Amino acid sequence: MTRAESPVVGQRLSAERPLLLASGSPRRREILENLRVPFIVRPASADESTRDGEDAAAYLARVVLAKLDAAWAAGGSALENAGAVLVADTSVIDEGAILGKPGSIDEAEAMIARLAGKTHEVWTRFAIGRASAAGGTLHEQTVVTRVTFRPLTAARIRAYAESGEGMDKAGAYAVQGLGAGLVARVDGSYSNVVGLPACEVLVALEELGLVP
Ligand SMILES: Cc1cn([C@H]2C[C@H](O)[C@@H](COP(=O)(O)OP(=O)(O)OP(=O)(O)O)O2)c(=O)[nH]c1=O
């Protein structure tokens, strides 16, 4: 975790000065809604392809900052009026390999097959940045959850991949959906697996003086 020198923004989030969630993920929106934080949504996309030789930590750090840059680059009155910007990226890490979103049903099947009967990690990195034109990161943090899949037959793996549920999800599954049937245990933050670690985000917002 890194922290900027002067973490306190000073002014609390409000309806007039909301948090700008720069994400197209409906799961992140739902988690933030549950936290009762005033926010607006302005999706910002970044290049999420992996690079040769890049490990999980470097990949997530790069993608999260790219999402923050994209949010600032979008500009506009929504950004100017926002109290801060929140971005996040979720990846499934299996034995050091980064599993992002599958490109096809076959790729989804291969991802589920490699995770079956084993424990992997789900990493979500989030960043809270300034909403000013000057930009800057106020808080960055990576939260890791360990997820154990039960042993799965080839037929079950194929059927789940064909359901299509995992196509827009890291690691090709959704623990909050039909994918619950694949998961024997979750060690750590559940919301982190779904895309945003609720407790850690709330604590960070509190520490920055953005929520009471
Ligand atoms: C492992 C897992 C991932 N996911 C989701 C969380 C993330 O939304 C998604 C990973 O893709 P991300 O690139 O982290 O997020 P996104 O493309 O959905 O949204 P944006 O980049 O605009 O913020 O996978 C689940 O919903 N359930 C799960 O069990």
Automatic annotation (TrEMBL):
InterPro entries in the record: ITPase-like_fam, Maf-like
Keywords: Cytoplasm, Hydrolase, Nucleotide metabolism
Pfam families the UniProt entry points to: Maf (PF02545)
Reactions catalysed, as given in the entry: dTTP + H2O = dTMP + diphosphate + H(+); UTP + H2O = UMP + diphosphate + H(+)
Protein function: Nucleoside triphosphate pyrophosphatase that hydrolyzes dTTP and UTP. May have a dual role in cell division arrest and in preventing the incorporation of modified nucleotides into cellular nucleic acids.
Record-linked NCBIfam families: maf
EC number: 3.6.1.9
Name by which UniProt lists this protein: dTTP/UTP pyrophosphatase
Active-site feature positions: 89 (proton acceptor)
